[in-house]
Amino acid sequence: MTGPDPSPSPPGQDLLAQSPFLKACRGQKVPFTPVWLMRQAGRYQEWYRGLRARHYFLDLCKNPQLAAEVTVRAVQDIRPDAAILFSDILLIVEALGLRLTFNQGEGPAISGPVRDALGLCALREVDPDELGFVYEAIRLARRELPADIPLIGFAGAPFTVASYLIEGGTSRNFERTKAFMFRHPQAWHELMGRIARGTAGYLRGQVQAGVQAVQLFDSWAGALGLEDYREFVLPHSQRVLQAIPEVPRIHFGRGTCGLLEAFDEAGADVVGVDFLTSLAEARQRLGSRPVQGNLDPSVLMADRDYIRQRVGRVLDANAGRPGHIFNLGHGVLPGTPVENVRFLIETVHEMTAG
Ligand code: CP3
Q1: pLDDT level of residue 178 (50, 70, 90 thresholds)
Q2: Is residue 219 domain-shared with residue 295, that is, in the same domain?
Q3: For residue range 306-331, what is the model confidence (pLDDT) as tens digits?
Q4: Cα(230)–Cα(149) distance, rounded to whole angstroms?
Q5: CA 188 to each of CA 162, 231, 249: distance values in angstroms, whole numbers, following the listed order
């Protein structure tokens, strides 16, 4: 018989929709607990260090072929249940009009950081098309990935991006960021609004290019007390997450134990739990909200018996509830033995299957 295929979506789309990762994002039952790792591509892998010896980090991010290759290679190497695009949350800094560099061993540096209302005037409104190389990397990676492995896109949340714009790099106490917030609240909200609009457009571009889920990284949200988070940050993160209702949204922050309910109110489908928060407590406080996490990344430095024990502890804390995506409570550390990462993923599958 000829004629149109009666199924509502192409078979590839269905394989993705039925993947354990996307089912867990929706709080549905899964055949085993899906697992992926933040920073699953990185310096702990020898092949990545080899690539980095030949290419500057930002050149890797901006070259769609190379970024797609790193994304896919990490999946082939450690066999997680989802891929995350190889990129960085700070690429948007350049679309905002500031210069970004990554110096060997020093992390990111932003020249001409925003210190006052004048600095704010110098920032551009983000044109999401300027990040076209990211969308191209997504299209290429999607084509090369196994048909049942979802691809996660991501961006930095407005507060974390603002902290880099203001501090000019990574910070310990965020004193300049907080001084800006407390002394110039109106300019602060304008800055956050500008980042939020740009980030919403950027994530929409990623969804159109073909990601199956997105993660919003508010890595430094834990630097704020609950009341400040609600007043200065939450409405802006809400606006970003509201802009992409088409795919599951994961919202991750570090040190969010004191903020967890407010963090959840930002409106994501899944809350990422860091390793300082007990997963059992997060479950209790968040009700039926799907969660992702939260093994301490340093556990991967230990031996297999201990890793297995600690995986067991995370799974026990979840107590068999649906809507759990296994992950670390922050990114893979550069000195992690790659065989321990593979062992972790196999162990999560083995301990939760059937
Ligand atoms: O998770 C993944 O595998 C996807 C790729 C990814 C990277 N950065 C690649 C990267 C993701 C999701 C990020 C997010 C990111 N970037 C965050 C939020 C998550 C977190 O870690 O809290 C932040 C704060 C950044 C900013 C950033 N990028 C810093 C502070 C640094 C330097 C410190 C470090 O870990 O090296 C980076 C560099 C970076 N981003 C690397 C990678 C693989 C290492 C670069 C190198 O090869 O030297």
Answers
A1: very high
A2: no
A3: 999 999 999 999 999 999 999 999 99
A4: 35
A5: 9, 11, 25
Q: State pTM to two decimals.
A: 0.96
Q: DSSP E strands: which ranges in the chain? A: 83-84, 99-103, 107-111, 151-156, 213-218, 249-253, 270-272, 291-295, 324-328
Domain total in the chain: 2
Domain identity same for 121 and 187: yes
**331/230 same-domain check:** no
The parent domain of residue 88 ranges over 56-272
9 C-alpha to center of ligand 1: Å? 35
Encoded tokens for 131: 């990040």
Contact 332, 299 (CB under 8 A): no
CA quadruple 46, 47, 52, 53: dihedral, nearest 10: 80
Within 6 A (CB) of ligand 1 lie 38-43, 52, 57, 84, 86-90, 107-108, 154, 170, 217, 219, 331
Any idea what the Cα angle at residue 40 is, between residues 39 and 45, rounded to 5°? 105
CATH number for the domain including 122?
A: 3.20.20.210
Closest residue (by CA) to atom 5 of ligand 1? 86
Tokens of 344: 């972790």
Residue 52 among the catalytic residues: yes
Burial-class residue 305 by CB neighbours within 10 Å (0-12, 13-18, 19+): exposed
Matching residue, tokens 């983000």: 126
The answer to whether 78 and 41 are in contact (CB under 8 A) is: no
Instruction: With cut-offs at 50, 70 and 90, classify the pLDDT of residue 192.
Output: very high
Cα distances from 11 to residues 6, 7, 8, 301, in angstroms, run 11, 8, 9, 40
Co-location of 291 and 205 in the same domain: no
Q: In testing the pocket of ligand 1, which one of 39, 172, 203 has its CB within 8 Å of the most ligand atoms?
A: 39
